Amino acid sequence: MPAQMPTRDGPRVNEDIRVPQVRLIDQDGEMIGVMSAREALLRAYDVGLDLLEISPNAVPPVCKILDYGKYKYEQQKKANEARKRQKVVELKEIKVRPNIDDHDYGVKMRQMKEFIGEGDKVKVTLRFRGREMAHQDLGLKVLDRIRTELAETTKVEQMPRLENRQMIMVLAPK
Predict the structure, then answer these.
(1) Quick one: DSSP state of residue 87?
(2) Which of 60, 98, 102, 173 could form an S-S bond across to 21 if both were Cys, CB 3.0 to 4.6 Å?
(3) Per the database record, which ranges form the Translation initiation factor 3 N-terminal domain (predicted)?
(4) pLDDT per residue over 109-154, tens digit each?
(5) How far is Cα 35 from Cα 60, in angstroms, rounded to an integer?
């Protein structure tokens, strides 16, 4: 079994560029033209920088003379910025009862509107106890009331459905 070289992620640099000819761009961004990869590498070493393959699929591949360490640092910074701007959608859960009081309902609605405003999904769980299971229509009315009040800001991702002793509905921001 032959020993495999570790595969590197990212563009090829210096001696890793194994093509006969390359199109060279110097450290100032000037197009030099097509030359042998060996000659391009020597030019890069003369100015104390690295030869980096920018466009490997071009014919011939495009290489640029630059500082590879600095290039890697810039790429890392860009990746971190992108990660920072990314919004992670969370699933927030609100629990209600079939015979919920108006004030309690108002508090739960305020919470749901806040969660939706932040871009999170809301899972509304309506729990039945004891004989309330016989009156599932009351629970469905509560969930319908929630759905109609939040209709302009949300879309129903999962319609109300019964799981054991609770009804579950998932709302997502539009």
Answers:
(1) P
(2) 60
(3) 13-82
(4) 999 999 999 889 999 999 999 888 888 899 899 999 999 999 899 9
(5) 9
